[in-house]
Design a protein that fits this description.
This protein is mostly beta strands. The protein has two helices and eight strands. It is 12% helix and 47% strand. Strands 1, 2, 3, 4, 5, 6, 7 and 8 form an eight-stranded mixed β-sheet that branches. The longest helix has 13 residues, at 48-60. It is globular.
Length: 144
């Protein structure tokens, strides 16, 4: 975060067998890729579940259903290219369009126009540290 404020965000897990859908990101400070569930920052006056619906529609153009709140946590990551301090509302959801589950890669855009690559990754890769999951504390929510 550029202005070093605490940011409330909402993130959502979408599952396909033993995989989850994640956005692929690059940490310029650590010079490595990392993966994060889809979602984003809450806007003033917006509930976290509405944030998820809006963000998924904005990022990859998909509608979602069966949104379930699974918990809340806090993350402080000062040692990355863009340090952050987030209060995270975690959800699980399903895509209305079932063909979304058959796509290996989805291309989308952030609000600022930055392109994002969204992929299905095996949960085991994160647990075995073969791929970096951010924030790492969210791995505990994958047991739900």
């Amino acid at each position: 975060m550029d202005n070093q404020q605490i940011q409330p965000i909402a993130l959502c897990f979408f599952r396909r067998e033993n995989q989850i859908l994640v956005a692929e990101r690059y940490d310029g400070k650590k010079k490595e890729n990392y993966y994060r569930p889809l979602g984003g920052g809450l806007m003033f006056g917006e509930y976290s579940w509405d944030t998820i619906r809006r963000e998924i529609k904005e990022e990859i153009g998909e509608e979602i259903k069966n949104l379930t709140f699974i918990g809340q946590t806090e993350s402080i990551c000062p040692d990355q290219e863009h340090p952050d301090h987030e209060i995270i509302f975690m959800f699980e959801g399903e895509f209305v369009n079932k063909s979304t589950y058959t796509k290996e890669i989805l291309l989308g855009k952030e609000r600022d126009g930055e392109e994002i690559r969204v992929v299905w990754k095996p949960i085991s890769e994160f647990r075995k540290k073969k791929a970096r999951f951010h924030p790492e504390a969210l791995l505990d929510y994958l047991n739900h």
